[in-house]
Specification:
Layout (H helix, E strand, L loop, with lengths): L1 H6 L1 H23 L2 H22 L4 H9 L14 H8 L3 H13 L3 E4 L3 E4 L3 H29 L1
Antiparallel strand pairs: 1-2
Helix pairs in contact: 2-7, 3-4, 3-5, 3-6, 5-6
Amino acid sequence: MTTNFHNNFGSIWESFLSFEIDRSREALRHFGNANNYFILQTIAWHNFYILHKNQKKEKYESFNKAWGLKSFEFERDSPKLTVLTVSQISGIEKETTRRTIKNLVTDKWIVYSRENGILYLPSERNNQIMIEFNEIVEIPLFLKLFEKVKKFT
């Protein structure tokens, strides 16, 4: 696989960069600005990670059903997501992260308290935006990239 990857690097990398650009452009359209998009992506990743750990299932339908509930019941020992943690994961400066989180709370994407940390708890409208983004944008773009990589490796 490594040899095929290196032999077809140009085609594979062009497809990867196209995926990144197309996904980012659509994310900006859906989520307003780059900071909102990246911070929300970091929070969504955290929730997805915990959901995956708790479910121990791999099928899309089980994730989609759980994600569609918009509220997750996490174990008490699940790691709390803090402003500092999001800043460290995303690489975005802490004060910028704090302001973005404040905006995401105002826009009803997340809730935040010192006790519980940052939780993905979108309004019904925002949850539909997230599901639409995933189903109409991310998954088709990723599958297109995956097929291209598979073809050349």
